[in-house]
Amino acid sequence: MGVIHHGSYAIYLELARIEWLRSLGLSYAELEKQGILLPVLSLSVEYKHPLYFDDAIEVELCMDQEPSSIIDFSYSIYSKDKTLCTTAKTRLAFVSAETKKIIRCPAFFIDALSD
User: Which of 12, 25, 26, 72 satisfies CB 3.0 to 4.6 Å to 64 for a cystine?
Assistant: First the structure.
């Protein structure tokens, strides 16, 4: 059909979160080394306009509120001509790699947000 498969959008959102963390001076790999995981609890996507193979896209990410043990994001995905093609939301939890239980957002994470 020439359009991007709906399953690809979850990857775009993940890449946006990784880049967002990097912009804060954090890295997901470092979080994991410190025993902190960020699994996705929920994902919702609304497709407004198709994206096509080889399209250049822009993903905007917004943290919806200060994280506690949960962190919520909203996304907008635009085509190269700035058409809004997709909106999405994800909910992630801070989880201890050791216990696999939800934990509070680490202080260093909150500090990185305020820098």
Answer: 72
Q: Rounded to whole angstroms, how far apart are CA atoms 32 and 46?
A: 30
What is the C-alpha to C-alpha distance for residues 99 and 103, in angstroms, rounded to an integer? 10
- pLDDT category of residue 1 using cuts at 50, 70 and 90: low
Cα separation, 93 vs 42, in Å, equals 10
Q: What stretch of H or E contains 90?
A: strand 84-93
Query: Considering the entire predicted model, what is its pTM?
Result: 0.92
CATH class of the region 8-114: alpha beta
Give 3-state DSSP helix, strand, coil % of the chain, rounded to 5.
25, 35, 35
